[in-house]
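Hey team,

Filing this mostly as a record. A colleague (T.K.) asked me to run one chain through the structure pipeline before their review meeting, and I want the input and output archived in the tracker in case anyone asks later how it was produced. No errors, nothing strange. Just documentation.

Input sequence:
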Amino acid sequence: MQTSRLGSLTLVTPPSSIENNNESFCIVNFTKQDQDKFSKFINKYKPHDHLNIYVVDKDKKLDLQWLTSVIEKSHTVIISTQNKLKILKTTDADNLEDLLHE
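Output structure:
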């Protein structure tokens, strides 16, 4: 019997940063509902991947240098504005906005 191993997920908040080759997402201003949608997306489409998730919260003190650095490191940047998720940067060919709004 062969078992399928799940990947890993590392949540990163300021001022921390990670240097590895994992696929990275930067999520900005996510509400609880946005977090749930993103979690469903990860569980459905990337359950076996090793991921870094940089979390940017507008209500917390933010270092612009850190934000710029993690945006550069991230393969995908997703920002939440007025109940809509917008993809600002992606290296993924899939239409992530459609997938996140399923």
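Quick notes for T.K.: Helices lie at 32-45, 64-73, 96-100. The chain has one domain: 9-100.
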